[in-house]
Amino acid sequence: MQTLTAAEAVATLASDATVVIGGSGGGHAVPEALLEALEERYLTTAEPRDLTTIHPVGLGDKKSRGAHRLRHKGLLKRVVCGTVVDAPGIGEAAARGDLELFTVPQGSLSQLMRDSAARRPGLITSVGVGTYVDPRLGGGSQGAPSDRPPSEAVDLDGEDYILYRSVRPDAAFLRGTTADERGNVSMEGEAYFGEMLSMAQATRNNGGRVVVQVARVVPAGTIPPKTVKIPYFLVDDIVVVPDQPTTYTTPVSPAFAGAERVEIGSLPPLPAGTRGLIARRAARELTPGAVCNLGSGISTGVSLAAAEQGVLDAVTLTNEQGLNGGLPASGLDAGAAVNYDAMLDQPYQFDFYDGGGLDIAFLSFAEVSARGDVNISRFGGRIVGVGGFVNISQGARKVVFSGTLTAGGLEVAWDRAAQRLSVVTEGRSQRFVEAVEQISFSGPLSQRRGQTILFVTERCVFSLDADGLTLVEVAPGIDVARDIAPHVGFAFRIADDCRPMDPALFDASY
Question: Where is the chain membrane-spanning (predicted)?
């Protein structure tokens, strides 16, 4: 093991190399110094070129950091990841055809790192069958055409599956907190474990080079052995960045690291308006003892709503990054959590999800179709990807999808005295459409699996059954013929027992 600067660590990376990158979302254990140094090398020397990068989770601050740094034409040939929502430059480059982009399920990529470490042929999974990541339906391709997609369709005993081929990395860019002089790495200060060990093993077993960014180096033998996440014999180079932040927006957080607990009363309130309202209504689906996942967007507010309603301790909230219990974070810090009970390596969290361990999942939607398909991956010309959405939505027994009925300029008002909701300005875009642009969740297959599906909006709630969507709740003051039907691009049924949404939800939100 040797200690190098970030520039020295990336200086020998060759063109056409395959690089696996650790980290999650908004800077959680992201080796930012290495990505910055790689960008600087390319802008200075035009080398390396035509890299393939693989990272299960989206990486970036939605502006300039993370994977966004690698957007420059010629630097990347191919990106395989869960989402590019955090790195808009990658999505834009893919849309121009400057690179190949495959956005595939975060959990499948995470598990594939473990299978690649063992040099197995790949990962066989049913996750994603019937969605746009299915090789029969495009294989997750979002950019330039490719003659070597990362997956293929397979049939086992008459059932459809997807095979993700094993990865052979030339380099791994990883992050920890502390390294000792031998190269053992611990992650005690990180908000996320991810699949750092699996990436290191996969790279080492395929003859590649493992580079780990850390905050400090300590004498050999001073890291407690049980806290070592990456053992020394897997590590080639250490890059020390003393001021590496816990996340992009949180410089240091012992709470995200699990080193201290916070008072629930000190947490920020739910946002006012539709976001808070929808989160509060979604949280009404929580049941005592339920193990749940909270997705991004509006659904991150469910944790705050649960705390507000005093039911947080009666349920177990999890996120796909491996945090179990406590209160998942929101905003750019989403993927972290406070007061959690356990942090698992990400592949094991997805094993639990894929196996049906979730009682309820709270997820967002961009588009919903007449048959209950959901799109979050590509819409309005914007490439997003799916992150853990496919694993979560397919594996949970019940899924509560959240979003506004229309988008783009929507404004509603609540008359507290009259206890009535009114639409002041309707959104410019319909979200409930005859057919979605991409299928991120298959309504018909969910019915075959026996899942319970709800769609929660600011003015109504739909359920899904074999015949499509049924209206089951309507906000006080909302007229179905005037305020709902014209803004839904298909016919829907109205339940015989359709009921009003609870006015208390609106009193608390407006």
Answer: none
